[in-house]
UniProtKB/TrEMBL annotation:
GO MF terms, alphabetically ordered: 2-oxoglutarate-dependent dioxygenase activity; sequence-specific DNA binding
Protein name: Jumonji domain-containing protein 4
One GO CC term on file: cytoplasm
SMART domains: JmjC (SM00558)
Family per similarity comment: Belongs to the JMJD6 family.
UniProt record, GO biological process: positive regulation of translational termination
Protein source organism: Chloropsis hardwickii
Length: 397
């Protein structure tokens, strides 16, 4: 991150507190083709902060091993190679899909970055390297949010937003996709009278005002046709529906960073509020009602408030380490999340700490968080905040 981008991002989040919802007049999505001249700061300033989508040309992925080894001469999935290399991996299949009505929805999804770390599959583009989600789950060694999706021609993914309202990037190893994108906030106009989102945003039922009373207020979706080798950047909180126009393999990451961590925090608060409403009748007779709400939320979202604190702590401690030690040869040579963020520079570490302080301050003051047993948290939220503010002050001297 250069100084101009640091100043721009600091001013933006000071004035607005959060990334833009991403309203996108005109329906235009930028196509980025200049590999040599398009910088990380360009992407951060023009797409991460305003929360706008974009498409990266196939030039950005032309050196990936997967584009050479996973694809036949005529651009089709090379199933013979995939079976030979990955045939014994356990596949995770989405639940709730399939059957006679939706046979095309049976995607094969496997989490491969840990199972086959030695494979020359792809390199995460630098633009997406500030990735707090995978940095944290790598440190915990329990999970991650890096996937390979395989879908036959005609298959599609129903209308949804990504986990924690994260960013996502999706690279087509082969095949073609059509995306329908709605800026964050537009989904409110697409809910039915019970508050539920549609399964299929193209269904004619949405035009029935008795079922979807606010549909007429929604804007038309942005439509993207993604070709083989291209990468689509999906902004935080944007709902989307995706079609495989050909047999397609794609590599996908979900990710959070300093620009949208507050969006993640807002999402968690909304999720907890929904749980509390659902079991509100048990609040008085249940002694540990607040804890039960956290457990239910974690079962639904994968994280609760105390783990969210640990998530912020791990990111903060990594940034403090960068500021204290600087970038050394050992860290720069390792292919891991911490090394990747180190290469983005000291100013980026300061920006991340500033955003962590903002969200951690809100979490620490949150009434539901304060009702939990926080004695197991080390350091305490108050002590961690003091440590972060001191590190920022020292770095900016």
């Amino acid at each position: 991150m250069d100084r101009a981008t640091f100043a721009c991002s600091t001013a933006f989040f000071r004035d607005f507190g959060n990334s833009s919802p991403g309203a996108f007049p005109g329906g235009h999505v930028d196509f980025i083709d200049k590999v040599d001249s398009f910088t990380y700061s360009d992407f951060f300033r023009d797409y991460l902060i305003p929360n706008h989508p974009c498409i990266f040309s196939a030039k950005f992925t032309e050196d990936w091993g997967s584009r050479k080894n996973w694809v036949t001469w005529d651009g089709k999935p090379n199933f013979e190679h995939l079976l030979q290399k990955f045939g014994k991996i356990h596949l995770a299949l989405p639940t709730g899909f399939g059957g006679s009505h939706f046979p095309e929805l049976l995607f094969q999804v496997f989490l491969f970055s840990r199972a086959f770390p030695e494979q020359d599959v792809y390199t995460t583009p630098v633009y997406f390297s500030s990735d707090w989600l995978n940095e944290y789950w790598d440190a915990m060694a329990v999970d991650d949010f890096r996937f390979v999706y395989m879908g036959p021609k005609g298959s599609w993914t129903p209308f949804h937003a990504d986990v924690f309202r994260s960013y996502s990037w999706s690279a087509n190893v082969c095949g073609r996709k059509k995306w329908l994108l709605y800026p964050a906030g537009q989904e409110e106009f697409l809910k039915d009278r019970h508050g539920n989102l549609p399964f299929d945003v193209t269904s004619p039922d949405l035009r029935d005002k008795r079922i979807y009373p606010r549909y007429s207020q929604s804007q038309a979706p942005l439509e993207i046709l993604q070709e083989a080798g291209e990468i689509v950047f999906i902004p935080s909180g944007w709902h989307h529906q995706v079609y495989n126009l050909e047999d397609t393999i794609s590599i996908n990451h979900n990710w959070v960073n300093g620009c949208n961590v507050a969006v993640m925090w807002c999402f968690l608060q909304d999720e907890l509020a929904a749980v509390q409403r659902e079991i509100s009748q048990w609040k008085d007779p249940m002694d540990d009602w607040h804890l039960q709400c956290q457990l239910i939320m974690k079962s639904c979202t994968g994280i609760d408030y105390k783990e969210f604190y640990n998530f912020l702590k791990v990111i903060a401690e990594n940034r403090i380490s960068i500021l204290e030690k600087g970038l050394d040869e050992e860290s720069s040579s390792r292919n891991d999340s911490k090394a990747a963020i180190s290469t983005l520079g000291m100013l980026h570490a300061v920006f991340d700490l500033k955003r962590t302080v903002k969200v951690l301050s809100s979490l620490s003051a949150n009434e539901d968080f304060r009702k939990l047993d926080l004695t197991s948290l080390s350091p305490s939220p108050e002590a961690l905040l003091q440590q972060l503010e001191s590190a920022i002050d020292t770095a900016l001297l």
